[in-house]
Amino acid sequence: MNKAIIKDIEKKYIEAVKCYEEEINGNSHPDINCFINLAFLYWSFATEQIEFNEPNKIPEEWSLIGGENFLPTLDKGLENYPGNLELIFWKQYLSYRLYMTDFSENDCKSLIKQYGNENSLVPYFFLYLFDEKSHSEKINELRKICKGLPTAKNIYISSFIEN
Question: Can you list the domains of the chain with their CATH numbers?
């Protein structure tokens, strides 16, 4: 398992960020999860002050760093993995959550239709908020993935889909 993911699971988030950055900058073809998990941590630092930063003792300056870096990290991921559903989903979802941009159930369904769902079940956690029954198989599979790899991103997803 990648060192950054281990730090992420251990909730050593600042160390994880540094390891994800090293992996991305020091590798000609970094793993897609480095971009996704790094962007998610940056976004969490920027937006989840009480829920994330305080309990995890994230220094205040990381809030600004996170706000400046989550979208560029996703863009860099899309340069390496163009048309990737999960990267595109996170770019829209995280912007929606931080900037209150439009992102609806139908928008999410359109992304899945346009980019396919073969490479990620993640968008289904958002659809689950609108309809708990329609995608139950995919949600059950996503629950298992999140439980088996408790990164910050997966803990966040689990908070919406655990029953």
Answer: 3-161 (1.25.40)
